[in-house]
Design goal:
single chain, Dihydrodipicolinate Reductase, domain 2, 12 helices
């Protein structure tokens, strides 16, 4: 049984613990967080060992691997420390805030010869997996055009009634904004087509935040597939609404995630809940989090990590994959800096008023 320690027990740490409950061949034995409230929450959820300093967790021989969900600014330090301690590593995206950090992380992991995987959970969404199968089978022919869109934001009601952490709103701690949300769809373009160069990028700021809150980007793969990427960080949609889609247009057909997504996620949740009740009653394996349609991706990718460590094979999303996504995002910012300044910026006062009204610091 592989023993896992969680570094960080905020929103994503708690989500990862929920997912880890359903893993085969692994269990969470320890949590590290500097917050006393977080450690109390971990104890209440049955975690046997808690630490205020993650270095103490890394020193424990009772931990084989770690899941890193600390703030982005701490990724390089935490990954390096875990590698030096000989722990296998699963790190929440983004891998790092810059290509320089990526290079140092790569060196640390390579020297330690530990397994390392970056959490790109959108690859495990059911409609995305269907789209990838369509693409790889050749059913769509050569892809000429694609559209990748995601809109979320701090204005949306949270799944957990907890305030947005200060680090998340600080570009210095979090890194460039596209590393948070746009990272997902940019990674999907790279996964679908293998590589990307940035033809054009336009970043806009409407609500007075310290960073852009919407972006339009044009990418091109080495094979000539174009990708239009739209990212927004302004949504007030209520869960389980989900403003995300990918469309592929090929010479032999087209496919969209909308084709494989339930028309009503609420109805889907009710049906899956009933199915899981029946599965449990009849002694069959339940499909945990299937009712959410997309949070099951956290379980699947963690299971892939566990399987790769136990079998000694390469994880499906590597440090190299994470570095390439970060590099592409840096190229996007470079392209935007060279573009004409056509941004539509709402006044800082108006943005501050909006943030106060929504309870955002």
């Amino acid at each position: 049984m592989m023993r896992i320690g969680l570094l960080g027990f905020g929103k994503m740490g708690r989500m990862r613990l929920k997912a880890a409950r359903f893993l085969r061949g692994a269990t969470v034995t320890a949590v590290a967080d500097s917050s006393k409230r977080a450690l109390e929450a971990a104890r209440r959820q049955g975690v046997p060992h808690v630490y205020a300093d993650y270095h103490d967790l890394l020193a424990s021989p009772a931990v084989d691997a770690v899941i890193i969900t600390v703030p982005n600014a701490m990724h390089e330090e935490a990954i390096t420390a875990a590698a030096l301690a000989g722990k296998h590593i699963f790190v929440e995206k983004p891998l790092a805030r810059s290509s320089d950090e990526c290079l140092r992380i790569t060196d640390a992991v390579d020297r330690a010869e530990v397994a390392a995987m970056v959490g790109h959970n959108y690859r495990y969404f059911p409609p995305v997996k269907r789209l990838k199968r369509d693409l790889d089978s050749g059913a769509l022919g050569d892809i000429v055009l694609s559209t990748l869109e995601i809109v979320d934001g701090p204005l949306a009601p949270a799944l957990e009634s907890r305030p947005i952490p200060d680090w998340y709103m600080d570009p210095g701690d979090r890194g460039p904004w596209l590393l948070d949300l746009g990272y997902h769809v940019i990674d999907l373009f790279l996964w679908f087509f293998g590589d990307a160069r940035v033809l054009h990028a336009y970043l806009d700021r409407r609500y007075g935040f310290a960073h852009e809150d919407n972006a339009s980007i044009l990418l091109e793969s080495g094979a000539g597939a174009k990708g239009t990427v739209h990212v927004g960080w302004f949504s007030k949609l209520i869960f389980p609404s989900f403003d995300f889609r990918v469309i592929l247009h090929g010479t032999a057909g087209f496919a969209s995630t909308d084709q494989y997504t339930p028309a009503s996620l609420k109805l889907h949740a009710a049906i899956e809940g009933a199915k899981n009740t029946l599965r449990r009653t009849t002694g069959r394996r339940i499909h945990p989090l299937s009712y959410t349609f997309y949070y099951g991706s956290y379980i699947e990718e963690l299971q892939q990590f566990v399987n790769s460590v136990r079998s000694g094979t390469q994880p499906p999303t590597t440090i190299k994959d994470g570095c390439e996504t970060v590099r592409t995002i840096e190229e996007i910012y470079g392209s935007a800096a060279r573009s004409p300044a056509l941004t539509n910026v709402v006044s800082t006062a108006a943005g501050e008023s909006l943030r106060k009204a929504e309870g955002i610091r």
